[in-house]
Amino acid sequence: DVQLQASGGGLVQAGGSLRLSCAVSGFTADDYDYAIGWFRQAPGKVREGISWINRSGGSTYYMPSAKGRFTISSDNAKNTVYLKIYTLKPEDTAVYYCAAGRHVTSIPSAPESWYDYWGQGTLVTVSS
Fold it and tell me: Taking the CA atoms of the chain, what radius of gyration do you get in angstroms?
């Protein structure tokens, strides 16, 4: 099975930046059409999508609300997908999740129900 493990969260000051990592394992050659997405869930709010990247790293998508302060990237040699968050704000405080979904790239804003595998999440807390 595909497994994902998110890490890199922590307590940061507003205005700073942070890079989250998602270590992915279990993909086979048949899983070429999977993409890795990042989501977040703030306290008391529903989980929302941020961005995804396809397995080759050649295609990415950002939700409109994420454009400008988030950068998704991947290192296939390390089987790791990254999410860099710039100019952190207190409202970025959330649990950040990574997930793997097949056919996600066919619809840019594919819902989270399209994602088959989820990591455990990593908490980001931004202090003002």
Answer: 14
What does the pLDDT look like over 24-60, one tens digit per residue?
999 988 888 899 999 999 999 999 999 999 988 889 9
23-59 burial by CB neighbour count: b if 16+ within 10 A, else e? Answer: ebeebeeeeeebbbbbbbeeeeeeeebbbbbbbeeee
Instruction: Give dist(CA 34, CA 119) in Å, integer.
Output: 15
Q: Report the sign of the C-alpha dihedral through residues 114, 48, 70, 11, in that order.
A: negative
- Three-state DSSP class for residue 66: helix
Separation CA 122–CA 56 (nearest Å)? 24
Nearest CA among 56, 52, 67, 55 for reference residue 107: 52
